[in-house]
């Protein structure tokens, strides 16, 4: 496998937390994304009740029946090299990724009713995918912490045998990528390339889905370029009481439309109005 997403190790660790059935589907999806050389970061899978309560209180999430709580959902962002591209949800690679997910039975948060358009959705959660077909909370956790990428290897069958004896030609041979470490293996630390945020493309297609009011700050809330308190750069300030249009949310953050671009305000500092 020549291509691997920059965040492959982190992706596998996060996938390893999913429920067994969901994990199987997500691993198949992920393997196909790798084949298509789609550089993604799966930044969130399972979520605690406390985290979800905060998301619902802030309006970032709509339900306490989140599929994240039961290990049947994940959130993903497209990357440009090591840089998370939070404006990448309309990019060809992400559209391809959505198609792979749908083909494997996952529901996308940008098209809940799976009718091929986001226009009729009232709440768009672009990074979100979930496995709803098995029912809510029906997954098991026997393989928690373990994820193995399916690696199809073609096994030649030379002798013609009766159909019942013919072995499948494609047999997944898997090598565990992530498993609970019994012996720590000393490995040189990978060189961390500091992601340098690129100037964001003009996103005239950002759709407003609501408005937040800035709260819980003494003066103003910081507007960040990415939804991360450690990796973001400050883009601007939103004074307390001011209102900002939003285009959606990602875990813990509102996606605000600021100067025509998509930026982020921590959910603690905004309330849907
Ligand atoms: Zn989600």
How are the SSEs placed, and which strands pair?
Elements lengths: L7 H8 L4 H16 L4 E5 L4 H10 L14 E8 L2 E3 L6 H12 L3 E2 L19 E3 L16 E3 L2 E3 L15 E3 L2 E4 L31 E5 L5 E5 L9 E6 L3 E8 L2 E6 L2 E6 L3 E3 L1
Antiparallel strand pairs: 1-2, 2-3, 2-5, 4-5, 6-9, 7-8, 10-13, 10-16, 11-12, 13-14, 14-15
Helix pairs in contact: 2-4
Overview of the structural elements:
It is a single chain. By secondary structure, the chain is α+β, with helices and mostly antiparallel strands. The protein has two domains: 1-180, Muramoyl-pentapeptide Carboxypeptidase, domain 2 (2-Layer Sandwich), CATH 3.30.1380; 210-272, SH3 Domains (SH3 type barrels, Roll). 17% of the residues lie in helices and 27% in strands. The protein is built from four helices and 16 strands. The chain has helices at 8-15, 20-35, 49-58, 92-103; strands at residues 40-44, 73-80, 83-85, 107-108, 128-130, 147-149, 152-154, 170-172, 175-178, 210-214, 220-224, 234-239, 243-250, 253-258, 261-266, 270-272. The strands form five sheets. Strands 1, 2, 3, 4 and 5 form a five-stranded antiparallel sheet that branches. Helix 2 (20-35) crosses helix 4. The longest helix has 16 residues, at 20-35. The chain is globular and about 55 Å long. The mean pLDDT is 85. Zinc ion (ZN) binds next to strand 2.
């Amino acid at each position: 496998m020549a291509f691997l997403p920059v965040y492959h190790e982190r992706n596998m660790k996060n996938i390893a937390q999913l429920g067994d059935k969901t994990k199987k589907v997500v691993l198949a999806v992920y393997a196909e994304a790798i084949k298509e050389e789609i550089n993604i970061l799966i930044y969130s899978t399972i979520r605690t009740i406390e985290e979800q309560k905060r998301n619902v209180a802030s309006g970032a999430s709509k339900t306490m029946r989140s599929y994240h709580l039961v290990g049947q959902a994940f959130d993903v962002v497209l990357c440009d090299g090591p840089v998370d591209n939070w404006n990448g949800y309309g990019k060809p690679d992400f559209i391809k990724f959505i198609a792979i997910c749908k083909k494997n039975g996952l529901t996308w948060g940008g098209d809940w009713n799976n009718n091929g358009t986001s226009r009729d959705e009232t709440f768009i959660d672009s990074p979100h995918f979930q496995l709803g077909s098995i029912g809510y909370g029906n997954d098991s956790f026997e393989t928690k912490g373990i994820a193995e990428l399916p690696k199809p290897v073609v096994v030649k069958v030379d002798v013609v045998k009766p159909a019942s004896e013919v072995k499948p030609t494609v047999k997944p041979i898997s090598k565990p990528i992530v498993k609970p470490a019994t012996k720590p293996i000393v490995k040189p630390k990978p060189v961390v390339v500091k992601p340098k945020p690129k100037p964001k493309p003009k996103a005239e297609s950002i759709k407003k889905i609501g408005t937040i009011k800035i709260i819980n700050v003494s003066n103003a809330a910081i507007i960040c370029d990415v939804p991360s308190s450690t990796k973001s750069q400050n883009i601007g300030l939103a004074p307390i009481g001011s209102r900002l249009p939003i285009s959606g949310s990602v875990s813990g953050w509102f996606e605000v439309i600021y100067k025509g671009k998509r930026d982020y305000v921590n959910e603690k500092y905004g309330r849907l109005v």
